[in-house]
Design goal:
alpha/beta; six-stranded mixed β-sheet
């Protein structure tokens, strides 16, 4: 089963939409309880962003019949404990793997990734670049996604420039890369940028 970049964008955007909806409900409850003058900063914290995105992608991957591996989230399968999974080029925040006959115990060391995801919610260009290089280093031809956040438009431009530079050195020439940036400057939504080496 193929996964399109637009499918992934839809999942990510739904996570952002749901978070904004929760914030709106909470804000309305606070105003109802304490009055219009009560100002509570209702935030979507980075740990919650990370977990919400992983949960949504995990559930969608399972629904689509993929073997899903996700760090520190529900639904991760236990077979991802072999030494080949500890290599940097095989270890990601989340991945979907096509297992074919679904016989997990007889899997080979050759990965058949369909989706690779790195999430870095620290607004740190160095960390974002380091995580993206893991995606570039992987030789599978698949959809590779970097999800991060930015406080300013200038940071977004810096992230995009670094990603574009890294994509040109990609080990996989058939992969499609998606950069999704949560932006406060753009009204609290994800901005998406697609790259092909």
């Amino acid at each position: 089963m193929n996964i399109s970049v637009n499918d992934i964008i839809g999942i990510i955007d739904q996570v952002g939409f749901d978070a904004n909806k929760r914030k709106k409900v909470l804000r309305e409850l606070y105003i109802d309880r304490f009055g219009e003058d009560f100002n509570v900063p209702i935030k979507w914290y980075r740990k919650r962003k990370n977990a919400d995105i992983k949960d949504a992608l995990t559930l969608e991957g399972i629904k689509r019949g993929f073997s899903v591996r996700a760090e520190k989230t529900m639904g991760a399968l236990p077979e991802y404990c072999g030494s080949e999974d500890q290599e940097e080029c095989n270890r990601f925040d989340l991945s979907w793997e096509n297992m074919g006959d679904k016989n997990y115990k007889e899997r080979t060391s050759k990965k058949n990734f369909v989706l690779l995801v790195e999430i870095e919610m620290e607004a740190d260009l160095v960390e974002i670049g380091r995580d993206f290089k893991k995606l570039v280093k992987n030789k599978n031809d698949c959809t590779k996604v970097m999800i991060c956040q930015s406080k300013t438009v200038g940071e977004i431009e810096n992230i995009k420039a670094d990603i574009e530079k890294a994509v040109t050195s990609s080990a996989s020439k058939q992969s499609v890369y998606l950069l999704s940036i949560w932006s406060w400057e753009h009204g609290g939504k994800f901005l998406h940028f697609q790259y092909k080496p």
